[in-house]
Amino acid sequence: MTTSQTCRSLEEQSTDSLVETHWLAQHLEDQDIRVIEIDPAPLPPNNIGHIPNSVVLDWRRDLWHGTSRDFVTGRDFQSLMERSGVTNDTTVICCSLVKQFSTYLFWFLRYNDHKKVKVLNGGLQKWISDRLPLTSDVKTLGHSNAGFYRPASPNINMRALRDYVLTNMRNRDLILIDARTPQEFRGELINVPELPQEGSYCAGHIPGAEHVFFEENFLPDGRFKPSRELKQIYISRGIRPDKEIVAYCRSGHRATVIWFVLTQLLGYPNVRVYDGSWTEWGNLVGAPIEKA
């Protein structure tokens, strides 16, 4: 199969995984749609306003397990969905003020095998720039008549854990992609400049990793670039669809942008997210690290 055959176009994929702002504005009252906004704490919370009829979740409090660094699954995921007003037949629209949190929620829902999910192209910033309606009111968790949610087993092949990366990092059929800033990749910073330089003892990147800064995937207005431009970004760096791909960043958010683009917009069949990312790898005793 050729690269052009494997990489489906943005136009073919957009109705499956992306929704545009003006389409959503016309469907806000649909009973089978739920808009979920992810609060990007520790960055400042959204005080600008919210899309009407949306639910706001905190990415860590609501998506992570209460006592371990892992995601809620099974009955905990069931409870989260029911409290969010989501059934198995609900189409969830993921949005945030910060681009990578929308794809993080999308990835989390697909990891838990919720099939009807889309990303709002351009996110809340595009919604605001289009001067579409905002509200200060959001749905309250736990006050919904949505009905029963049937949880499924997690899609474990969407995720790479630390030992898998350590074992396979030198496998020529696997490509690691670092989605962080160039400064983080080179080992000049541990975190993005606007946040404290903490969370890992060591700076650098996993040896052999390719660097694709996640912002390269977006147009200036926050929407994803056309498929022909996205293809060029990855193919020009030898990131082909016949390879296994593992994307990472600092804590998993930016890596899901890479995963979303490759799997949902370009049709790559074998992509995982190493969500432990640099907050784990940069603290592992004896783990190999490179600096550019």
Written overview of the protein:
Helix content is about 30%, strand content about 15%. Helix 5 links the parallel strand 4 (about 90-95) and strand 5 (about 115-120). Helix 5 packs across helix 10 (about 255-265). The chain has helices at about 5, 10-15, 20-25, 75-85, 100-110, 125-130, 160-170, 180-185, 225-235, 255-265, 275-280, and strands spanning about 20, 35-40, 55-60, 90-95, 115-120, 175-180, 210, 245-250, 270-275. It is an alpha/beta fold and about 290 residues long. The protein folds into two domains: about 5-155, Rhodanese-like domain (Oxidized Rhodanese, domain 1); about 160-280, Oxidized Rhodanese, domain 1. It contains eleven helices and nine strands. It is globular. The strands form two sheets. Strands 1-5-4-2-3 form a five-stranded parallel beta sheet. A four-stranded parallel beta sheet has the order 7-6-8-9. The model is unreliable at about 1-15 (pLDDT under 50).
